[in-house]
User: Fold these one by one.
Assistant:
Number 1:
Amino acid sequence: MMRTIVAFVRLRLRSAGLSFSLAYGLLYALSSALFLSFLWWRTTGLMERQVEQAVDADYHALAEHWVQDGLPGLVLAIQDRLEQNVDDDAIYLLVAPDGRKIEGNLVSWPRNVTRTDVNYERAILRDGVKATSLLHAYDLPGGCRIIVGRDIRGRAILRPLLADTLVWSWVMVTLLAVGGALVVRGIFKRIVSSIARTTAAITHGDMAQRVPLMGNEVDLVAVVVNEMLDRIVRLMDGVRQVSNAIAHDLRTPISRARAQLEDAALNCHTTDELRGAIERAVSDLDHVTAVFEALMRIAQIEAGARRAAFETFDLATVLTDIGELYSAAAEDAHLTLTTALPGEQQFYGDQRMIQQAVANMLDNAIKFSPQASTITLSCAVDSKSAPQRRVTIAVSDEGIGMNESDLARASERFFRAETARNTPGAGLGLSLVQAIAQLHGGHLELSRRNPGLRVALVLPLATKPPPRTDRNSMTQDSSASHLSATPVLVSGSA
Amino acid sequence: MMVRSLIFVSATSVVLLCAAAPDAEQLGWHPASDAVVVTTDSLAYCHTLERTIETRAPASFQNVRLLETQGARLCDSGHVRPGIDRLRRALQLLRHS
Amino acid sequence: MRILLVEDDPTVRSFTAKGLREAGHVVEESDNGKDGLFMAVSENFDLVILDRMLPGGIDGLRILQTLRSQNNATPVLILSALADVDERVAGLKAGGDDYMTKPFAFSEMLARVEALARRGRAEQAPQTKLSVADLEIDLLSRTVKRGNERIDLQPREFRLLEFLMRHAGQVVTRTMLLERVWDYHFDPQTNVIDVHVSRLRQKVDKPFDTALIHTIRNAGYILRAE
């Protein structure tokens, strides 16, 4: 099946290359035919006009003789011209009003030469050999008529010669074009087949293949294809990693619930025991649901579908409200939650998502802070100019923190640092925060404090909706940057 | 689509080439009956020119005489047009001197 | 209360219907959209519980839209396996009064059912004062008194108490409080709501002999005079 598809693709490529080069060759042949035809037309036209002008000038000179010396002068001039005609191409014929020949070298007035305003092309017989002549008839005052002409045998010879030459050069050009087309086709085929080979290898499961770079324009395509392949590999890794994690993190509570129910069915003797076991099982199942919901939410955000809910809102109010919600919880855990927030900060984004992200960050901080320590929720805008302006929402704690290697993996789905094994949670909180950061075109920054951890949401500050065309690239950007799934690390300030 | 444009292109180029090629009609190869005889290619005209030279040129014009003799000989041996050519050159020479 | 339950899954349906009957409601059941729509438009109910995805070509949203297009204002609680925020918005936009995602705890559903029924009644007369036993709050001047003693509350604490008072005698769940008092639609990992309720108790209950705010295990809170 796969082989047939590959063969079909190859065939299509081949015919595409062929028609591409054919079109190229034909275009070349057509344009050279056009060019040569034009050349031929101009050259013959020029020759014809030259003869016509010579004939006309000749006639005017003869007409002057007629005016000065009358008929005898004209006859003498014609005789003289014929005697001196070394080029052997002059043709004259002077006839009386009654049609009788007076002088000239034509035997008789040719038939069909009647009008005086056009040039005739007529056959003549020269010493038994046919030739072509250009004749022009004129009326002389007094009823006489005269023909002035030229033997254009030379032109008649030159014209087919020129045409032959041009036709042959066209044939040569066309052959060259066809040759060029074949070469182009070969190049085209080589380029495409190198990409096709690689992608075919990938479809057969060899994910390590890449399109070789050739050092020319083809690399533009090759690089993009390679990047695409890299991305596919990373996505596949991601899927594998997540499915492993799901298998582990969902299996555990499900099997626990199952074990509890089975145990209860076999060993519980009192209703209270039974009820307790069932309640524990239900809470395990609730945990499974929560994990599912978090996973779905992350997947949904990463698909970029949530940008529909973007609007401009006051970030400061949102953060103050969440701070207030959590300050009580912090106090209850014997912690202090301090806030450092601006009075007002307009922000374009998804309000619910920002709430969710900050809530997750605060949940984490409260969970991992020792008693009597302080948690700080802060929001600050950097001093850059408008398009690069970013807002940083940070939650700092004085808790157990993380070591460098944990920091790098913190936002991976289901990742839980060794030290956090014993606290409740599914390890999805920071993944969700990271996904929300990327939805807004920003990123998640984790840095070590001494002691503690600082989790910062760095988001571009766009108060207006970005132009519509930006939307796709933004989503692509955010999903592309997601692939380099490690959050930005800031080396410990301590 | 591609095939159709290819056919169009080739057809156009053939038409153009045909238009460019010289055709018999244009070159004026009419039947012999239509052709008008040019009288200055005849042996008679040859003799006319010879007589003209004889009357105009003194015997001392050696080059003219030489060309005249050559022309007359060519005319007599049947090569009328080359003969006339020589005689015309002789006349031209005569005029310029 | 007369409740119509349209739900195709037999386990969920019988479990829910049983629970609602035990809580003293009259429950009519339907397992498909066609029958559900027929019953909803032809009979009078105090509440309709609608599953969003139903067999038979007519889904929950269609039933809801039909009801609303006939100016039927019966409160509707939508049940759905679609947890998506957009789905929730779509459900509420179509005229739903509340939205719950499956799986759900029955206590949560019961609390919401009671709240919806109460709302239907309460909306008829706008109140400026609410009182339970000797606790009284004035919604206009935003003051709280218990007996003759005045209690000072933070704005958020006032809103929390107001919500509990409006649903006095009814169980309200933590999720309901988070949604209605704070307008948040996510599950906090920490017990933020419990903390806020216990703070309110410190002010409203602690100095007095009898407690009004009670914790209902596995469900939420209730404000009532014992």
Number 2:
Amino acid sequence: MSRNEAYIAAHRFGLGPKPDEIRHIGSDPRGWLIEQLHAAPITPKAMLELPASRENVLDWWDAVMISVAELVKRIRNDYRALWRREAKARLAAAITTEQPFRERLVWFWGNHFTVSGRKAVAIGMAGGHEREAIRPHVTGRFQDMLYNATSHPGMLFYLDNYASVGPHSYRGGVTYYNQGLNENLAREILELHTLGVDGGYSQQDVREFAKMLTGWTFGRRYNPTPGAFHFREKTHEPGDKVLLGRTFRPDGVNEGRAALEWLAGQDATARHLAFKLARHFIADQPPPAAVDKLARTFMETEGDLMELAQALVNLPEAWDPMLRKFKTPQEYVVGAMRAVGGNTDYGELMSVLTSFGQLPFMALSPAGWPDKETAWLNPDSALRRARFAVSVAGRRSADDPGAVQIAANSTGDLLPQNVLQQITEATNPKEALALLLASPTMQRR
Amino acid sequence: MITRRRILQGAAGAAGAIAALGNSPLTLAAAATDRRLVVVILRGGTDGLALVPAPGDANFGQLRQRLAVQDPNADNIDLDGFFALHPKLTGLASLWREKQLAVVHAAQTGYRSRSHFDAQDLLETGHNTVSALADGWLNRALGYFAAAETRTGLAVGYGTPLILQGKTPIATWAPRRLDRPEPEFLNKLMMISARDPEISRALGEGIKTEAVNRRRLGHLESSEIAGTGAPRALADLAEAAGRLLSADTGARVAALDIDGWDTHGYQITALSYRMPILDRTLMALKAGLGAAWANTMVMVVTEFGRTAVPNGTNGTDHGTGGAMLLLGGAVRGGRVLADWPGLGKADLYEGRDLKPTMDLRAVFKGVLMAHLGVDAAYVEDTVFPASRAIRPLENLTVA
């Protein structure tokens, strides 16, 4: 039983086992997961060379000062190239990491706070947003992650807040600039990042919250924090704001901070986050008791994400031997590459993920990638996974470990006996490996 | 319809399943109808007053301010002296002249809040309450043709949109990029997947349709579709969809997504890039359909309109009423269908949005009945179970 649980831990909470991972997990899969939460986070080697988002933000500003045409040119060339580097580094980190649970939490929270390169102005910042605002906080407090994710230039660009101006602010009074309120970020924080769409807020609350966030922008070269978060008093809407019946007195940048802190502590937020977490790790329709437990943990620990992740690991519902979740394309592809070990051609993997419809940092909307089987499993994608498996198996050499050995390392007793038999009896080693990689066991977690 | 049992029998009989593929059961089967229906979903909330502006409304210029003129070098394209098209929609303008384009304006589902995701849920489930139904109305409509031997529905692109998700099996298609496995391998894979009914069913369908698609699509089948919305890629996708629908047998109803309409900032620039993509995509769909265009109706819909007044960043925020397009040889075109609410301050919904005066479901119902010939009771009871009061719009199709 506990041997099976090692495989479950590696697939459900991790990114699929690497060749030596099951041995490493040993007899205490929960301990293996919890240890990752307490261990010092390791910055993936692939990410060490990446530039800070600050540089892209300033380059953006320089370009826009020249002309819109110059900006468009840089987006198409330089920023796109930067996005590719970020995306490949993220894949490399996932395929090589020794802390796959921690990496999954980065993916989960990164998706919760999506910044997507589908919006051209954010394409050079999406990777930096996750590295700088999400990754360091996955075992910290939710309110810190919320503040960092919101105030990072990547999010301020992606959801337009950088240009939002209070109508009664100093700058708002200057009609020449033609500027005013933009409610995009405020709405998505309430709907997606905190309370959830049924969180009880109204259109009026969205506008009031948007007013609190006026002035939240990035520092220009002449500001004290060039390319990073900067509060611009001149565009901040003056006066009291009322959010969900609670009055926030005029207090500059602290209004938005206070509102975020308050939102982070709401029951609706706890329930929203608990549901998403349980749906992600347990089942498309998560057991209500599991959601309740996570929501309670969130409230009792004031949003301690380490405690929340630990509570998740300790849920009996999270260890159902049935693999219910259908891996997303990124999870599937990364899992396959971890299973076979060895070198990966990341450029090629990007092409594969293009055809699977899930390139890193390219979610279609601020809601992030869908987290349900119906969104990913269809006749076309099923066949596509088979093709991928054939392609991966096709380039293995005779010296590489065979399918039976890889199956022992990656799926163990989770793989039904008849499947193992088919693999054993396959016509040739490549077919054997392709069958394993395309088997339902490898596609679920 | 190929059943799970048949797939398994085929697999158990070694080469059986593959032999069936070679014979392509699809080509032997009767199609449900000779009409084609394509639903193009513009995700993000398209500004209806940018897509189909109303320069004839006395309040238009003042209300829209700097969004009134959408292209410094070209005017909005006049339709009927009151309404116009975005300047970049030149292909659609020619369809208008041929009376193959109709506009439904000031329209929206029953949704009255401003969340993308809930609005899309209602647009696609056809219900009044978010998450009340887990399947899409188009999928339920296809259930009417369930007796047909082929899959009548087709999802084009990577993933199946909610509008097509549900009990009725549908076909899916997206361009190929990887090696094509040997039939023998697929046969074995079907066998080892048997214990997972969902994967097994999807894989069986994928194998079955691939051979057919390959013949119909030629070079388009392997065309490079970038995941980042490259303009030509969408047109290729649409042309491929058109070709798949044009065949004598096979899919009749397709859905296709175009995203990128959430224009909170610098809308003029954003739309001057997005509108040509829409125009080219629809024209490519027409080209792919060929002669079948005469029997086609394309519905272009979005989850909500946007604020009528520009916001503070030269864009528009989430709104309510919007515009919908109907195009195709089967459309009674050259008309704007609208109970126009007006653009005066007092006319706007909550003082900010174009007021919806038409429920999109009236159009959906009308199209299903008149164009696809779905029985009225089926439409009311099964496809749109929560909206009997909304009467189907009549006279949408050419006689």
